[in-house]
């Protein structure tokens, strides 16, 4: 079998975040990042690497930086270069880590005052959340402490409250149709583990949530993409693929799309719901961003539009209240929830009981929290949009319906280059390519407008310098 080959775009995506220390030389940081990918197995032995010139252009560094980094790895016995054959990974004996486990964590646990972080769409908790969570008393816990503390499907009272929450949003639900998870990402991983085998086909939008891509890739799924338009996924392409390919799963983010921010229009949703019901393909509708909607009321869920179809609805409290609560859920049929609870039992035996009790209290504040989120996010978007229109008028985007970030289109397909140049100027952005299952979206970047006005202003000022200067840092 031929040795694998990795292109400069794919390798740059794996290297995202490699340059983090302004005191350390670029070639040393790059060599360290490549070493980590080789050690983890992300770059297996025999992999043909991009040329120095091609990768240097993509990473926005000089060719000399790449030459020096490659030379360092050759001296360590990790790379082998031959005239006319390119540079290949020699590898080592370290065990391989699966998929995203070997990649750099996009959420840092340290703060650097010299960096304007516009890369994360994670939202801070609302101030009053601390009071509600703090109201969970020893008396509330005492009943549960007397038991074993393991509830793979979730505390019965919380499952009932989530079912009522879904019903209030237009999706009639029973407590036995709800499984509590430790956030929406665990929900995705649990579904992928339960439903996917290597080689199974999954339809995803392009772009889409990178957490979902990681969950599916870790199971060895084959990803097939559907173009995303301003009103949602291309329904004609999606329906044709459902009928012709009969994929194992279809994954959609219908309300406040991650990362674009648009909401699927009702006419498109009805067409897709009908096709899902017709073909019997299991649909995952990720509703974890619905609480960031600031334009109009939430539309009906896909599960409500196709009540007899196999639809798994994912929800979360992270964006509405606080990510530290770590409570999400899957809403499905009673039988499938039982199956998922069995899979869950082999992993972590259930979510934290104190967190679930806090979530139970917080669900009583959903209307208040949604109003507050909508006000703050709309104001942040409008202020940031005005700033960008004034100072970076050739950057464009589709006006979002909600969310915490802008999906920016650049005049040229050089998103990775802009991200790397911005990083070394003290601004963190996310390249569009990490949201693509097909190495696309090269002309896009994601820019958070929820980082606070001071951070956004500082970030945009630095971006103006990088963009107008067109500089490539050595």
Topology:
Layout: H1 8-14, H2 26-40, H3 52-59, H4 63-75, E1 79-82, E2 86-89, E3 116-117, H5 129-134, H6 138-145, H7 156-168, E4 178-181, H8 184-195, E5 201-206, H9 210-218, E6 222-229, E7 232-233, H10 235-245, E8 249-252, H11 266-279, E9 282-286, H12 302-305, E10 311-316, E11 328-331, H13 334-345, H14 353-362, H15 366-391, E12 405-409, H16 415-424, E13 427-428, E14 430-431, E15 444-448, H17 453-469
Parallel strand pairs: 3-13, 5-6, 5-8, 8-9, 9-10
Antiparallel strand pairs: 1-2, 4-11, 6-7, 10-11, 12-15, 14-15
Helix pairs in contact: 1-3, 2-4, 3-4, 7-14, 8-9, 8-13, 10-11, 15-17
Domain HTH gntR-type: 24-92
Family: In the C-terminal section; belongs to the class-I pyridoxal-phosphate-dependent aminotransferase family.
Keywords: DNA-binding, Pyridoxal phosphate, Transcription, Transcription regulation
């Amino acid at each position: 079998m031929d040795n694998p080959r990795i292109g400069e775009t794919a390798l740059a995506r794996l290297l995202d975040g490699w340059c983090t220390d302004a005191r350390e030389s670029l070639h040393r940081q790059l060599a360290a990042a490549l070493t980590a990918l080789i050690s983890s197995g992300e770059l297996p032995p025999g992999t043909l690497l991009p040329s120095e010139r091609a990768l240097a252009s993509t990473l926005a560094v000089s060719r000399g930086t790449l030459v020096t980094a490659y030379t360092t790895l050759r001296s360590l016995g990790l790379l082998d270069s031959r005239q006319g054959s390119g540079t290949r990974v020699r590898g080592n004996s370290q065990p391989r880590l699966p998929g995203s486990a070997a990649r750099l964590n996009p959420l840092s646990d340290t703060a650097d005052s010299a960096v304007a972080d516009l890369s994360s769409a994670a939202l801070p908790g609302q101030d009053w959340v601390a009071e509600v969570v703090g109201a969970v008393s020893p008396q509330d816990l005492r009943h549960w402490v007397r038991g074993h503390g393991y509830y793979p499907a979730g505390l019965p009272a919380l499952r009932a409250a989530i079912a009522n929450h879904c019903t209030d949003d237009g999706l009639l639900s029973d407590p036995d149709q709800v499984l509590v998870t430790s956030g929406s990402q665990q929900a995705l991983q649990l579904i992928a583990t339960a439903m996917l085998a290597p080689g199974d086909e999954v339809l995803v939008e392009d772009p889409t949530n990178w957490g979902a891509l990681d969950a599916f890739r870790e199971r060895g799924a084959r990803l097939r993409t559907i173009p995303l338009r301003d009103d949602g996924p291309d329904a004609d392409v999606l329906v044709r693929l459902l009928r012709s390919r009969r994929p194992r799963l279809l994954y959609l983010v219908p309300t406040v799309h991650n990362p674009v921010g648009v909401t699927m229009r009702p006419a498109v949703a009805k067409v897709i719901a009908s096709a899902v019901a017709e073909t019997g393909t299991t649909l995952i509708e990720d509703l974890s961003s619905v609480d960031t909607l600031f334009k109009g009321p939430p539309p009906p869920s896909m599960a409500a539009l196709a009540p007899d179809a196999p639809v798994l609805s994912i929800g979360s409290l992270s964006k509405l209240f606080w990510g530290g609560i770590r409570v999400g859920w899957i809403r499905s049929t009673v039988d499938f929830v039982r199956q998922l609870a069995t899979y869950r039992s082999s992993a972590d035996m259930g979510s934290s009981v104190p967190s679930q009790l806090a979530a139970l209290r917080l669900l009583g504040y959903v209307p208040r929290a949604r109003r507050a989120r909508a006000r703050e996010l709309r104001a942040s978007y409008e202020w940031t949009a005005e700033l960008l229109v004034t100072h970076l008028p050739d950057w464009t985007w589709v006006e979002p319906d909600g969310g915490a970030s802008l999906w920016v289109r650049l005049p040229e397909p050089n998103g990775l280059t802009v991200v790397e140049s911005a990083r070394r100027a003290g601004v963190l952005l996310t390249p569009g390519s990490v949201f693509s299952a097909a190495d696309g979206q090269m002309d896009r970047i994601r820019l958070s407008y929820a980082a606070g006005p001071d951070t956004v202003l500082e970030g945009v000022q630095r971006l103006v310098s990088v963009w107008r200067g067109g500089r490539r840092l050595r």
